[in-house]
Write a structure and sequence with these properties.
Blueprint: H1 3-16, E1 35-42, E2 45-59, E3 62-73, H2 75-80, E4 83-92, E5 98-107, E6 110-119, E7 124-129, E8 134-139, H3 149-157, E9 168-173, E10 181-195, E11 198-208, E12 221-226, E13 233-239, E14 244-253
Antiparallel strand pairs: 1-2, 1-14, 2-3, 3-4, 4-5, 5-6, 6-7, 7-8, 9-10, 10-11, 11-12, 12-13, 13-14
């Protein structure tokens, strides 16, 4: 597996682990202090763990939300391919617009260290490539999100009642020097999953991805999120060009709302 392929796979999963769905709700979906942990399996290997932590912070004298996503290989898998990734986003508490995005990647010797500053008044994002000591501007629109801010914005913005089974959502994201990426997600209906916490009713989605080097087909990914006011991802499965990968919710803390478990 090339460094480029693994980088794209991990980046995609970090976003999907934060995507919380599209349900109408009067209560906020999250609060500072929320912490989620996922166990990622690559084939039969327990390949890595990923965590997402949300807190309140200050950026340029403005009170903002600050989310930190970390993913790293563990145990046997790390012997063959060591991964240590950190993604961070600072976004507005009211509008959900991103102000700053950080990516620090180490994957089997491949490294990437970038920072993006969003200027929503000028509709431009300044991307700093610290590794290569380069800076350049990327034109953006007022709806653009970064890899992490997107999910939190969607949790509080979209109404599930606006969508029907088979409906597809599109949105623009910027999280790398590849420029704006249009993300598409189709709603497939409801399904009950068995988890380590018990049975959980979930909303099922189909994220559309680019087939080829990483994913086997355009519809290789499936995402399940809890059908409650939190909308936390419970499971993600993907068929890759080589092998398959699955991420399961392994721990949580500081949820804004009750996590609904179906009792037998």
């Amino acid at each position: 597996m090339s460094h480029f392929v693994f980088m794209k796979k991990i980046a995609t999963f970090l976003f999907l682990l934060t995507f919380m769905g599209l349900t109408a709700q009067k209560k906020p979906a999250f609060k500072a202090g929320e912490w989620l942990k996922y166990r990622i399996h690559y084939g039969i290997l327990n390949a890595s763990y990923a965590t997402l932590q949300l807190k309140t912070d200050s950026l340029d004298s403005l009170s903002v939300y600050h989310v930190i996503g970390r993913g790293r290989t563990t145990g046997f898998a790390s012997i063959f391919f060591k991964v240590d990734n950190t993604f961070e986003s600072y976004f507005d508490k009211t509008s959900g617009k991103p102000y700053k995005f950080i990516r620090d990647t180490y994957e089997g010797g491949y490294t990437k260290d970038i920072e993006i500053r969003f200027d929503h008044d000028e509709d431009v994002a300044l991307l700093k490539d610290k590794k290569n000591k380069k800076e350049f501007n990327i034109p953006v629109n007022d709806q653009v999100q970064d890899l992490l801010s997107a999910s939190y914005h969607l949790r509080n913005t979209y109404s599930f009642e606006d969508f029907v089974e088979g409906e597809t959502l599109t949105m623009d994201m910027l999280f790398d020097d590849d420029g704006i990426y249009q993300f598409k997600l189709k709603y497939l209906g409801k399904e009950i999953l068995r988890t380590k916490f018990g049975k959980v009713e979930c909303l099922k989605f189909r994220p559309y991805v680019q087939s080829g080097r990483v994913f086997k087909e355009e519809e290789s990914l499936t995402l399940w999120v809890s059908n409650d006011l939190n909308k936390i991802p419970v499971r993600i499965k993907a068929d890759l060009a080589v092998g398959s990968i699955k991420a399961d919710l392994d721990g949580y803390n500081g949820l804004r709302n009750q996590f609904k478990i179906i009792m037998d």
